[in-house]
Design a protein that fits this description.
This protein has 22 helices and 2 strands. It is mainly α. It has a domain at about 15-140. The protein has a two-stranded antiparallel ribbon. A hairpin with a 4-residue loop joins strand 1 (about 190) and strand 2 (about 195-200). Helix 16 (about 350-375) packs across helix 17. It is globular and about 60 Å long. The protein starts with 16 loop residues before the first helix and ends with a helix. It comes from Tothia fuscella. InterPro entries: Chr_Tranpt_l_chain, CHR_Transporter, Chromate_transpt. Belongs to the chromate ion transporter (CHR) (TC 2.A.51) family.
Length: about 475
């Protein structure tokens, strides 16, 4: 892979807490350990400095598999901090300055940044094939574990009372995780890079996209519209921006007059009405292409296609797969493996389930492999193109609105259950379900407080394990009684 000979854009404050999390591993400030930062003040030299070991493909696979893949616990911040600590701070493959600029590039690309960084370093060590090998080594442990978890989930049976009691307690915990994630993503996605201050136009884009979702406008219409609108705003073309903003609602009003209010499934593209293997692959491919900033931008799309439009994945099972994805050593987008397994099992039995898990995972990760292995020369042009950069800024701001709406939907489902739960007969069952909503609400509140209080990478794992145990005491009688 060619070295980056052009300066990268200044890194934004997105995932800024990665800088601090390195210190949790006992490291001094990274700049103290990088020779180029003390021996020269020439920024070009820092960006060109490289001390990458040349591994064989087998050595490269083992290096990323046992150093990162097996220990990718705690989500993207912990994963990126671990990669930075080992490769940049301790082994000094590249300088901190170059790492920051490489990371800035991957923030605007679809896919999990930790996997993309592994691919980047693999490319430095052994070319493009090395990048593919390093990426696979990082992803493989989590994929195998999620495949096993999907099989055990199916094997246990959705009607197993002990199993369901634990997952009933996990659902409000997942809602709390998504609330915190929405907050953290919003912190970075509505900030103007030049001033490092909140951009009110990006906040408006997020709010209006949430409103559009409530009005059941298709996700792609909102994302595309606010990407283009922000491009106009960035160039102070106020009239075209205002015109496009008004036109989206004029078009919506005309649609309502002639066709009525869109149904909830109008938010979907309808690419996975049935969980056939080809549909699962396309679902993963489109969701992976939308995963700007990680899995939380892919979750709304998969939920709309599989739960609302397709109807082949129950909402509670979808929430369960996010809970499992949060505790495995893998990028959170690995939740797609679970979705593919359940879809394949619904369509054609256990053999088809394993095939479905594989094809949707390939589709989900293909965009990040494609963009990363393509080379930095292309990526730099993309980043330096101010026209496209402002489009991505507007798109990222709008994505917050989509995530926020889905988060509230998951919260509602995790606490109150579905409408059918509250209408069950006899009436005593419905009353019991309503009463347990209070317990779920308390679990959500406590989980949210824990997530904000404890930022250690093991906090999520301990929280999930505790909720699974608590579910046996809090919800077992309710579920067994039904």
């Amino acid at each position: 892979m060619e070295r980056a000979t052009q300066p990268f854009p200044e890194v934004t404050n997105k995932h800024q807490d990665i800088e601090n999390s390195v210190e949790l591993n006992g490291a001094k400030h990274p700049e103290e350990n990088i020779p180029s930062s003390t021996s020269t003040n020439n920024e070009d030299d820092e960006l060109l400095y490289e001390n990458t070991p040349k591994f064989s493909l087998i050595q490269l696979f083992w290096y990323f598999f046992h150093n990162f893949g097996l220990f990718a616990w705690g989500g993207p911040v912990a994963q990126i901090a671990m990669i930075k600590q080992k490769i940049v701070v301790e082994e000094k493959w590249i300088t901190l300055a170059r790492f920051q600029r490489v990371f800035a590039v991957y923030q605007i690309l679809p896919g999990p940044e930790a996997a993309e960084l592994c691919m980047f370093f693999g490319c430095l060590s052994n070319g493009r094939i090395g990048g593919i090998v390093a990426g696979l080594a990082f992803i493989l442990p989590g994929f195998i574990l999620m495949l096993l978890a999907s099989y055990l989930y199916t094997l246990a049976g959705l009607e197993n009372v002990y199993f369901n009691a634990s997952f009933r307690a996990l659902q409000p915990v997942v809602a709390a995780m998504m609330f915190k994630a929405t907050h953290k993503i919003a912190d970075h996605s509505v900030v103007k890079h030049a001033t490092k201050k909140v951009d009110p136009f990006l906040v408006i884009a997020a709010i209006c996209t949430a409103i559009n979702s409530a009005l059941r406008l298709n996700i792609f219409i909102s994302l595309g519209s606010y990407g283009v609108i922000y491009m106009f705003i960035a160039r102070r073309l106020w009239i075209p921006a205002a015109t496009l903003f008004i036109l989206q609602y004029v078009g919506y009003a005309i649609y309502v007059v002639f066709r009525g209010v869109p149904s909830p499934v109008s938010l979907a593209l309808g690419i996975a009405k049935t969980p056939s293997l080809i549909n699962l692959f396309v679902l993963g491919l489109v969701a992976g292409s939308l995963s700007f900033g990680g899995a939380y931008t892919a979750i709304p799309f998969v939920q709309v296609e599989a739960v609302l439009k397709g109807g082949w994945l129950p909402q509670r099972v979808f929430i369960d797969c996010i809970a499992i994805g949060n505790v495995l050593p893998a990028p959170l987008v690995i939740f797609a493996t679970f979705v593919g397994f359940q879809g394949g099992n619904t369509e054609g039995g256990l053999g088809n389930a394993f095939a479905g898990a594989v094809v949707i995972t390939i589709g989900m990760f293909f965009p990040c492999f494609l963009f990363t292995i393509a080379g930095h020369s292309l990526l730099e042009k993309l980043v330096h193109n101010k026209f496209l950069a402002s489009f991505f800024d507007g798109l990222c701001g709008a994505v917050i609105g989509v995530i926020a709406v889905i988060t509230f939907q998951i919260l509602r489902s995790s606490i109150h259950g579905t409408e059918s739960d509250l209408l069950k007969k006899p009436v005593e069952v419905a009353i019991s379900n309503a009463a347990n909503s209070g317990t779920a609400a308390v679990l959500f509140t406590v989980s949210l407080a824990v997530l904000y209080k404890f930022t250690n990478k093991w906090a999520v794992i301990v929280l999930v394990a505790s909720a699974a145990v608590a579910g046996q005491f809090l919800f077992l009688d309710e579920i067994a009684g039904h």
